[in-house]
Amino acid sequence: MTxxxxxxxxxxxxxxxxxxxxAGRPCVPYPATADDAGSPLRCCLRPVEEGERIALxxxxxxxxxxxxxxxxxxxxxEQGPVFLHAEDCGGPDPDRHGYPFTxxxxxxxxxxxxxxxxxxxxxxxELPADPAAALDAALDEAFADPEVxxxxxxxxxxxxxxxxxxxxx
Length: 169
Description:
It contains three helices and nine strands, in the order H-E-E-E-E-H-E-E-E-H-E-E. By secondary structure, the protein is of the alpha+beta class. A hairpin with a 4-residue loop joins strand 6 and strand 7. The relative contact order is 0.20. The model has no long low-confidence stretch (mean pLDDT 96).
């Protein structure tokens, strides 16, 4: 059992991204190919399956979080590519357990943010045989700093956001 909750892209943001992405480009759905299969879907936190209708869109997670919280990330605001289902998928399976996208050996960057939306440190993590325990430990370390309010877990290879983890209440 994991100690933290991986958050998918918010349903309101998904609705907007399925129309126009955060770079101002229209969403262009397509059927997933064999090359797309296994890529992370940020709407439901599971891998793409060949043949599904998906879209690759630009997403600015910190910008959207800042708009909700009043933070001012300044230069830390960025956008990157994410895969989504082209239509509403209902989000993550409620019976899903653990962290998504945790292939042993994968490299993850855990980027920490303070309440202003500024980077407050980070960590590089190579996922071991027990990725949940390693992510729990890395998130424990991140949230040990009382200034850290949000952690983005990203793929090192592509820099894209896999999921966000807010400070537990």
